[in-house]
Amino acid sequence: MRLGALEAGGTKMVCAIGDETGKIFEQISIPTVTPEETMPQLIGYFKQAKIEALGIGCFGPIDPDRCSDTYGYITSTPKLAWRNYNIVGAFREALACPVGFDTDVNGAVLGEVTFGQAKGKNCVVYVTIGTGVGAGIFIEGKLLHGMLHPEAGHVLMQKRADDPYQGKCPYHKTCLEGLAAGPAIEERWGQKAIALKDRKEVWDLEGYYIAQALSGYILTLSPEMIILGGGVMHQEQLFPIIRGYVKEMLGGYIRTKELEHMETYIVPSSLEDCQGIMGCLELAKRAAGENDCKDYKG
Ligand code: ADP
Ligand code: ZN
Predict the structure, then answer these.
(1) pLDDT above 90 as % of the chain
(2) How many angstroms separate the Cα of 175 from the Cα of each of 81, 151, 195?
(3) Deepest of 57, 93, 165, 265, by most Cβ within 10 A of its Cβ?
């Protein structure tokens, strides 16, 4: 099958043409400006590629509820030009093909369970730590939506006593994103995260906060694997720090074979930063299988 994949991000739109095995034939990236400017470029790209279905993993918040009147909309995003924009509707109309739609992070976790190291697992959490923090949750074999979709990057945190930073989230100040996303690292330490590579105290604090959130996810969801991606996680020294703090924070309360092998439990992505776009191929394949036509409501 010839499938289109769109990883719609706040700064760039990654577009790919591939197939149902996760193979990517070609890929381009277009800056995210406004729907008026950006959408015609995206539509033009997918139209000439003659795809059979499109899968979109989108920055949010979005409405992924197929029964809702605003299904397929980007909803209350701080990117004002895209607020209340019917992105699925625009593609369906222009391309006249089935369109799959979910959050960018649900796309990424789907990529990992379909094509990557989490294949065959039933409960997996994927967390991205970049400009923001988001989590995609695959549970009992399905992508979790619930009343909206998880916003686990905004879980509230207990600040460490030695951290005077006031936090950057406009809604919660010191949630995980407010304390640990790339912009928070930069504001707290006065330098871009990448330039702080050799500062041990930076990554110790960062790992502490990430571990605190992961401990909450472990206790709540009981995942079989946690995958960490996003720009900040390119600092690979974070992994042993996070694993160590998670172990400490759980206090030996849960005993599973997964937790005994932390190095295969809390892991980097296995798909070399293609997990998101490959997940979108799977979203496209699923949409095609559903015979998802223009007025499909699920
Ligand atoms: P986005 O979240 O916008 O899709 P990224 O996942 O690349 O993009 O995240 C960007 C954030 O990650 C920025 O705040 C940047 O400072 C930080 N970042 C990017 N690369 C690195 C790196 N190698 N080490 C540490 N931080 C990084
Ligand atoms: Zn927040």
Answers:
(1) 95
(2) 26, 11, 24
(3) 57
Distance 101 CA to ligand 1 centre (A): 24
- Which of 269, 232, 276, 273 has the alpha carbon at shortest distance from 103? 276
> Which residue reads 């912009």 in tokens?
183
Angle at 234 between CA 213 and CA 226, to 5 degrees: 40
Q: Which ligand is nearest to the CA of 79?
A: 1
Select from 13, 32, 127, 131 the residue to mutate for testing ligand 1; criterion: most ligand atoms less than 8 Å from CB: 131
pLDDT at 136 over 60: yes
Whether the predicted pLDDT of 298 surpasses 60? no
User: Could you tell me the distance, in angstroms and rounded to a whole number, from the CA of residue 142 to the centre of ligand 2?
Assistant: 25
CB-based burial of residue 31 (10 Å sphere; 0-12 exposed, 13-18 middle, 19+ buried)? exposed
Task: Give distance in angstroms: CA of 230 to centre of ligand 1.
Answer: 6
Pick the atom of ligand 1 nearest to 235's CA: 24
Q: Strand, coil or helix: what is 179?
A: helix
- Going by the DSSP 8-state scheme, the letter that residue 182 receives in this structure is H
The span from the CA of 231 to the CA of 131, in Å, is 8
Q: What is the pTM of this model?
A: 0.95
Q: Which residues contact 146 (CB under 8 A, 6 or more apart)?
A: none
* Per-residue pLDDT, 290: 85
- Rounded to the nearest angstrom, the distance between the alpha carbon of 182 and the centre of ligand 1 is 6
Judge contact between 128 and 229, C-beta under 8 A: yes
Span between the terminal Cα atoms of the chain, in Å: 23
Look up residue 163 and give its two tokens. Answer: 């951290």
